[in-house]
Design goal:
The longest helix has 13 residues, at 77-89. The radius of gyration is 15 Å and the shape is globular. Strands 1, 2, 3, 4 and 5 form a 5-stranded antiparallel β-sheet that branches. The protein has helices spanning 4-7, 40-46, 52-61, 77-89, and strands at residues 2-3, 25-33, 90-98, 105-109, 112-113. It has a single domain (2-116), classed as N-terminal domain of TfIIb (Single Sheet), CATH 2.20.25.10. By secondary structure, it is α+β, with helices and mostly antiparallel strands. Interacts with TRM9. This is Trm112p-domain-containing protein. It comes from Phlebiopsis gigantea (strain 11061_1 CR5-6) (White-rot fungus). One of its GO terms (molecular function) is protein heterodimerization activity.
């Protein structure tokens, strides 16, 4: 399933596309919110791996404005619960992710992103 925790790790890998290939722009998405058990230690541990600005931008594209523009220095349970919701409970079921550099489209169908490239697109 495509969740924002996954989206935050994906970049375009098409042949010759080596700059400005992250974050992939979300387009025509259908989302579903599915509850997931809150694990504050997991969320806290994942914080250093996040590209914060990309995460906030993607969340806002999906209509969630619960995250602050800048990552706070002090994290409390309220912040961690909002982050948990954005990372793990918002599921993208349908749509596409588009590279801001080369425009390559990665379709999402039934919650699964197709990140495969045609042979001529592999670099």
């Amino acid at each position: 399933m495509v969740r924002l925790i996954t989206h935050n790790l994906l970049a375009c890998h098409a042949k010759g596309c080596t700059s400005n290939n992250f974050p992939l722009k979300l387009q025509d998405v259908a989302i579903e919110v599915r509850e997931a058990e809150f694990n504050p230690d997991f969320v806290r541990g994942f914080l250093p791996r996040l590209e914060w600005k990309a995460l906030v931008q993607a969340a806002r594209e999906l209509g969630d404005t619960s995250l602050p523009e800048e990552m706070p220095e002090m994290v409390d349970d309220g912040f961690l619960k909002n982050l948990h919701h954005v990372l793990l409970e918002i599921h993208i079921d349908e749509g596409a992710m588009i590279c801001p550099n080369c425009g390559h489209t990665y379709p999402i169908s039934n919650g699964i992103p197709n990140m495969l490239l045609a042979e001529h697109e592999i670099g």
